[in-house]
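Whiteboard transcription, Tuesday session. T.W. wrote the structure tokens on the left side:
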């Protein structure tokens, strides 16, 4: 099991993960990054535009191992008619 940090940013603002989280397999990083994005979206609920936000995942040496864009909130997705 390895520890990773899940930082969130839109290029101007950042939400840093100082403690990190244990992940059993690197194949689960995308799933965990999506959960982190959902948590950040919920904690900063006054925001409406998440288009530029990303989760950047780093190992404890600081090496970036994944960049995962925030997915649109399911209840806010608009379908073009």
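and on the right, the sequence the group agreed on:
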């Amino acid at each position: 099991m390895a520890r990773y940090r899940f930082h969130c940013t839109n290029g101007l603002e950042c939400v840093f993960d100082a403690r990190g989280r244990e992940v059993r397999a690197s194949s689960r990083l995308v799933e965990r990054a999506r959960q982190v994005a959902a948590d950040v979206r919920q904690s900063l609920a006054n925001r409406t535009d998440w288009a530029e936000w990303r989760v950047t995942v780093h190992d404890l040496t600081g090496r970036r191992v994944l960049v995962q864009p925030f997915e649109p909130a399911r209840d806010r997705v608009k379908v073009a008619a």
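Someone added at the bottom: The chain has a mean pLDDT of 88.
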